[in-house]
Design a protein that fits this description.
single chain; about 475 residues; mainly alpha; about 55% helix; globular
Length: about 475
């Protein structure tokens, strides 16, 4: 009994000493924390919150302008994004949207009241640079578990690189851009096949590059329906039951949060591309596909498609036989590159046929097409036409590529991911990724689409 009492007393004493040690250690830690606070090493939660709020505000401003069709807001949007980047330099969304703002500016340069605006000369190099930075942050930096990489970004790096190569007469740059686009289309065929099309849509209709571009649009539809659509009767009505608002397949359809009219824009491009290839009957079916969209009647640019679809398509096809780019119709909305998929409101005084006859509407569209052919031209989302390019290069670049060193633009193959298709993340469960370009959720999540700008490869893993 006495032995048990002694043992119990010893245990109690030992426990008391242990508590005292813990309390002493707590006191030491408290003192150290106070010293750190006084020395300026404290974590400034307020400052961090201010940075995040500024980033969210910049992101929100971009989307307000983009959806609001406010082209004249681009300089302010760019400045705000740049300021946010200075305080939040590891945020891929900010770089991606800054790249998108530059791409939008040059893509719809006909809207710039100053056709000699020096900023136009920097837009494409800046777009490549910023998309490259966004991609490197998204693919090659460490992220929290559950982070989903964005497979849109290789597509936008690829298409802007191709266009920069076209603008600077650099075949090597074009080839690097094409390689990036092929990787992007492999990673995310539902979306990036459109970028492969847009990069070469204005190439000669009999060229191998144009045939590959047009086939990319077909491949995009094939990936959406999980089969091969009839090239002679490409009616998508039998596949409308596949409509979804989640996952990567949502890029195939309409009413997306970021690009509500991307489906209609896709059909406009495919229809025009088929006309250029002389496949008029199939084009008529494709134009009609656009009308299946639930939001078709609110599409601000539907008058363009309707004017084309009701015109003499055989005569239109004949215009592409000429080697003169100035006589060839646009393959998207004349002088517009991004607005006709993203904008939720009409332009002021442009592309509105609600108060005039169909023939008058067609005449107006032709006038706008003429305006497009008179200057620096785009077709589709980022589809660059090179007519008058020599004059513009001299005007904008002063005969040189630009102040940016185009030899230093980033490319996927330089980062060792040329064979990473085998390490892609699961192809579903993208809800956490949705809307990240809108600034909702974690600002440092993977970016969700620009012209629509989901899983990508696994960060830090390179295929052997």
């Amino acid at each position: 009994m006495e032995k048990e009492i002694r043992n119990g007393f010893a245990a109690a004493v030992d426990g008391a000493f242990k508590i005292l040690k813990e309390q002493r250690m707590f006191s030491i830690l408290t003192a150290l924390s106070s010293l750190l606070l006084l020395s300026g090493f404290a974590w400034n939660w307020q400052a961090d919150e201010n940075v995040e709020n500024a980033s969210r505000a910049a992101i929100g401003h971009f989307w307000d302008a983009y959806h609001g069709n406010e082209y004249d807001q681009i300089p302010q949007v760019q400045a705000e994004l740049q300021r946010a980047i200075e305080n939040d330099p590891n945020n891929p969304t900010l770089y991606a949207l800054l790249g998108a703002a530059h791409f939008w500016h040059i893509g719809e340069a006909a809207r710039d009241p100053n056709p000699t605006d020096p900023a136009l000369g920097q837009d494409m190099p800046e777009a490549v640079d910023n998309f490259g930075k966004a991609l490197n942050l998204d693919y090659y930096t460490k992220h929290f578990i559950g982070y989903i990489n964005d497979d849109h970004l290789p597509g936008y790096l690829g298409i802007t690189t191709v266009h920069l190569g076209q603008m600077t007469n650099d075949p090597g740059l074009i080839a690097k851009g094409d390689q990036t686009l092929d990787f992007a289309a492999y990673q995310f065929p539902e979306f990036n096949n459109f970028n492969r099309w847009a990069a070469h849509s204005t190439d000669g209709k009999d060229s191998a590059s144009y045939q590959k571009a047009l086939d990319s649009l077909w491949q995009g539809i094939d990936s959406c329906i999980g089969g091969k659509i009839d090239r002679n009767n490409p009616d998508v009505k039998p596949y409308l039951n596949l409509l979804t608002a989640v996952g990567r397949k949502k890029a195939c359809w309409w009413e997306g949060v970021l690009a509500p009219y991307s489906y209609e824009g896709y059909m406009l491009n495919l229809g025009n591309g088929l006309v250029k290839a002389g496949q008029v009957d199939a084009a008529r079916i494709v134009y009609n596909n656009a009308r299946y969209a639930a939001n078709y009647n609110t599409w601000p640019y539907r008058s363009v498609l309707e004017a084309i679809a009701s015109s003499d398509l055989n005569a239109r096809a004949a215009l592409y036989d000429s080697g003169n780019a100035q006589t060839q119709p646009a393959l998207g909305v004349p002088s517009r590159g991004c607005s006709y998929c993203h904008a939720t409101v009409a332009e002021k005084g442009q592309y509105s046929c609600s108060q005039i006859s169909q023939s008058a509407c067609a005449s107006r569209i032709n006038e706008l097409a003429g305006e497009q052919r008179a200057g620096f031209v785009w077709s589709g989302v980022g589809g660059l036409s090179v007519n008058d390019l020599e004059e513009r290069r001299e005007l904008v670049f002063g005969g040189r590529s630009s102040s940016k060193d185009v030899a230093n633009v980033p490319f996927l193959q330089d980062q060792g991911i040329g064979n990473q298709g085998a390490v892609t993340a699961p192809r579903d469960g993208f809800g956490a990724h949705d809307g990240s370009w809108r600034g909702s959720g974690d600002l440092h999540q993977g970016v969700e689409a620009f012209c629509e700008l989901r899983g990508g490869h696994i960060v830090g893993v390179t295929a052997e």
